[in-house]
Amino acid sequence: MTWTHWAYVAMLAFCLTGTLPLVPAFGLSVLRQPRRLLLTIGLAGTPFLLWDLYATHAGQWWFDEDQTLPPRVAGLPLEEIGFFVVIPIVSVLTFEAVAVARRRGLQGGGR
Amino acid sequence: MSYTALAMLAVALAIVLDRWVAGTRVTSTRDWWSAYAIIVFFQLLTNGWLTGRRIVQYNPETIVGNDRVVRLGEGRILYAPLEDLLFGFALVLTSVVAWVWLGRRSREPEPQRTSAEERDST
């Protein structure tokens, strides 16, 4: 294994390192609601993961073995499954941070 | 179905979910569109990494573009097929809709009201 096997992992790590600091920076309560966050990941991520499985098995797209880690689950790299966990998390964090920032800026007025 | 058709269908379904099924209507809020503007910028960067390095490759039969991985044009933007933008929009919107919907119906103790709820006036 070489460092290039971590190329996809690096992208996921970039997403999380960019958004997790939003929690302390904006005083977000997202991570203190683990049940709600897990359900969000399940509800939003699952249909897209199924789509991904369909597309991968139909040969619509595929993943470079040299730039992903070796493990495969149902033909998908672990990173690809991680994608459907990471993206809902970063989406919620960004949305909540924007909401707090705008509310501060607008002092509660307007939307 | 091609990736193009599936991606367009997913965007339509996500919007229907937001506006009529869950009734969250985040697509009527500035919070959503501001957040999405930030997210789509970073999607272009991270997706450009995945597609420009060819970590993910696409069957030319299933996208508007072809097998030429170019920065712009040929149905691609920053190396990624345009379809990925639709995929991303649908995934991010569905995530936010699920989050807001769960927050509204939840009776579980919350440390504090979430910002999404406090702004709820659509």
> Can you tell me the number of structural domains of chain B?
1
What is the mean predicted local confidence, pLDDT of chain B?
A: 91
> SSE string of chain A, helix = H, strand = E?
HHHEEEH
Estimate the strand proportion of chain A: 5-15%
Please give the number of β-strands of chain B.
4
Derived from helix and strand composition plus strand pairing, the structural class of chain B reads: mainly alpha
Strand content of chain B: 5-15%
The value of Rg of chain A in angstroms is: 17 Å
Quaternary status: heterodimer
Number of helices of chain A: 4
How helix-rich are the residues of chain B, as a percent range? 55-70%
Give the terminus-to-terminus CA distance of chain A: 50 Å
Q: Helicity of chain A, in percent?
A: 55-70%
Low-confidence parts of chain B, pLDDT < 50 over ≥5 residues? none
Please explain how this structure is put together.
Chain A is mainly α and 111 residues long. Chain A has one domain. Helix content of chain A is 64%, strand content 6%. Chain A is built from 4 helices and 3 strands. Chain A has helices spanning 7-19, 22-26, 34-57, 78-106; strands at 61-63, 72-73, 76-77. Chain A has a two-stranded antiparallel sheet. In chain A, helix 1 packs parallel to helix 4 and helix 3 crosses helix 4. Chain A is elongated. Chain B is mainly alpha-helical. Chain B has one domain. Helix content of chain B is 57%, strand content 7%. Chain B has a 3-stranded antiparallel beta sheet. The relative contact order of chain B is 0.18. The model of chain B has no long low-confidence stretch (mean pLDDT 91). At the A-B interface, helix 1, helix 3, strand 1 and helix 4 of A face helix 1, helix 2, strand 1, helix 3 and helix 4 of B.
